[in-house]
Amino acid sequence: MKSELAALSRAHPSVGIFLLAALAAPLFAAAQSYPTGPLRIVVPFTPGGGTDILSRLIAQKLNESWGQPVVVENRPGASGTVGTAFVAKAAGDGHTLLVMPAGYAGNPSLYQKLPYDQNRELTPVSLLASGPLVLVVHPSLPVNSVKDVIALARSRPGEINFGSSGAGTLPHLSAELFNSI
Q1: What would the pLDDT profile of 31-87 be if each residue is shown by its tens digit?
Q2: Residue 3: is it exposed, middle or buried by C-beta count within 10 angstroms (0-12/13-18/19+)?
């Protein structure tokens, strides 16, 4: 199973993704008989993105390995907080899992009040994948390096825009950090 997850990580390096389980201690205590029933993998984003695709690949492999149904459920909203809150409030039996990009770690800094306490109600279980963030520009821009992008942006304040996968996500926060240079 470990080698299958490693292969999936290499094949799908979209973002650093963590597998989290609500109060995962029962999972370790009952390792001999785990899982005892169907598993739910919650993806706190819309279907079709990297997190969703990776989760579905993993769900299929877990189903094959354990002989238990593994269902992926999308619960998008508020940079992942809707789905994360659902998992945090789920029964602590290790049968409801969350797959979340690394940007999740920044949510307590971005939101004054979260509907969960990620330090108390969620436990990181495994790093599933990682991948680089890439800076790309439209070919019509007269730049050939990051240094050129910075110079162009400084010469045209407020005119250069960027796109990301959503407010509060790691690509968004990274672009804002880059913007502060």
Answers
A1: 568 899 999 999 999 999 889 999 999 999 999 999 999 999 999 988 888 999 999
A2: exposed
Residue 169: other Cβ atoms inside 10 A: 20
Residue 9 burial (CB count, 10 A): 19
Structural domains in the chain plus CATH codes: 2-129 (3.40.190.150), 133-181 (no CATH)
pLDDT surpassing 50 at residue 1: no
What's the first-to-final CA gap in the chain, in angstroms? 43
Length, in residues, of the chain: 181
The residues near 139 (Cβ < 8 Å, ≥ 6 apart) are none
pLDDT of residue 14: 40
Output phi, psi for 157, to 5 deg: -55, 135
**Residues 166-175: pLDDT tens digits?**
777 788 888 8
d(CA 102, CA 9): 14
Ramachandran quadrant class, 38 (left: phi over 0; alpha: psi -120 to 50; beta: rest): beta
